[in-house]
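Posting for a labmate who doesn't have an account.
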Amino acid sequence: MTHTQPQATAELKQLATLFGIQTQYLDDRGRRQCASQESLASVFKAFGIPAATPREIQNSLRETLLDRVREPIPPVVAVWNQATPRIQVRLPESASKGNLSATLQFESGERLQTDIALNRQRTRTVEEIEGVRYITKTVSLPRSLPTGYHTLTVETPAGKSQTHLLSAPTKTFSEKRTKRAWGVFAPLYALHSERSWGGGDFGDLRAFANWISDLGGDVVATLPLLPAFLGKPCEPSPYSPVSRLFWNEFYIEVERIPELTACREARRLIDSNRFQQQIQSLRQSDVVDYFNQMAAKRRVIEVLARFFFSKPSPRRTAFNRHIRSHPAWDSYARFRAVFEKNGKAWPNWPAAMRTGELRDGEFDPAIRNYYLYAQWLAREQMEALSTETRGRGLKLYLDMPLGVHSDGYDAWKEQSLFALNASGGAPPDSVFTKGQDWGFAPIHPGKSREQGHRYIIQYLRHHLEHAGMLRIDHVMGLHRLYWVPRGVPASHGAYVSYPAEELYAVLSIESHKHRATIVGENLGTVPPEVNKSLSRHGIREMFVSQYEVKPHPHTAFRRIPKMSVASLNTHDMPTFQAFLQGLDIMDRHDLGLLNQADLNREQRLRNRIRRSFIKLLLPAGSFKETSQHVEGLLRASLAHLSASSTELVLVNLEDLWREVQSQNVPGTTCERVNWRRKARLSIDQLSHDPGVRQFLGIVHSARNRDRKS
């Protein structure tokens, strides 16, 4: 985005409107930024639409207008609260006075066929394109729809067309009686114990959840648990998964694998001195060594996989039955096996393998079996974990990342769905002055509508089968996403609109099917319509003290919303102590993101914010720049959140021992230890730490104290 490049022509703006490409936006300082003609042309290229020259723009505009008027009904229609569906049907005038044959296919399998006289339906619009008049009529179907996914097929003199009907409650699922709940957040990789092999596993998450439950907590929250590339390359970021449809085998608890009891070879391997020394080294490291820990687990799981597939068993029968009913599992395992055999990303595979099915002989079947078996184990352990947490009355709070790795399985399998020549990102702002390129291919909104948002439904179900709460990362992405075309700087992208109401309908349907609460990550610069939509659809927003605090004591915080998840910070922010001391500001200066003048200004502002915290939360005269003061301010801050009427208070585990290192520093890769730092205290140590228990006791008491909300 820049004002020095040629501005978009009227025709290019019209074309952009048809594709939902926004030609302007308000930046983080409220200034209007306009997309240049060059930026829009680059985004159109990512859409697969030629728009680099006046002739291309004219031709693309003409073809698009013709395609739109020739589409009798939209590909998706959201229907709220089981209302009678009303469909906009566009037809040439010559076909607009006959009968329309409508067939409703309900999700249950029931079918309903009816004929509708078009001349009795209200005319909505009349338009003429290249000498042909098109009439749009509003057609009401004869009955309401139950909650779920249905299809409507209409047949007119002009032909046959189909639409996906999403029948949803306006508001996502919510418990009829909600308590003032509290929970604890920690990345699973950072959790560790005397039993686990370095980084955390599903067993550590189970122990962590049980510990929270024993203290009276209601929620255990963590980062995405999806598969990643952990070999060569090794890219452990939980927000760049290989797929949103499977689990990360890195988190398998080896000791709970049923085959381990009977497989002598695997037990000999684990018990060997060399293997035990390797595990001990992994445990002693301050950071998670994904590559070597995954390699160690894989050695054992491969042995167990050979044992599992070597002979029939009841578990093998159940496994085979599952694979037959879930063909994507075999597709995923073949993809991972081919990736390893070729040693390169799928865009560099032979053409037949890039676009077609992967055949026997193109991969090592033992590696395929490893991935199938590993997913079977991960699924079993996730099911056991969610069953146990639900049995304790505890909710598992999972996290849905915004995108997937462009070299991963989902991007390969759903190539027509992703805009592979672009990346999601963010425009320039006061912190990232050159904009951000997040590296993942965005979903093409039009292609997603054509398939009735099938892929989105699949990955939501994958999570909601186990989650009592699901956080939607960058929830603004339901409305719009900043696209950065391949080969251009992040400053030359543009926002692309998404069918928000349709996506909210999908969220509502799935949340009710699974009785799960949806949380929207709405931090940063978010247009007002996003927060209004979250409220309208009953999606919990996030209230984060470090984002909310103002440098004026009397207006330090706005009222904490009841329908929210309240916390002091997030995994992408400095810890509570680091924030108070301004350590994140110094870090940004060290990274070259702040010059000396900016550093001084930011430090002055942070000092004022800290004083606002103190005057709002601490008794007069108690201020001292000591560690005891920070501890007191942490106690007061947690008590302030917990005394509010917010539905959930989420405590960052590491704040409880006043950690100063962040789990992730946005905008950095190798410059900082992101996604790898272990928690200072092990799970075994947590239960014996009086300070940790004392802080959580304060939260528990305040959350359970009788008060008017």
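Reply:
Got it, the structure tokens are right above this. The first strand starts at residue 24 and ends at 26.
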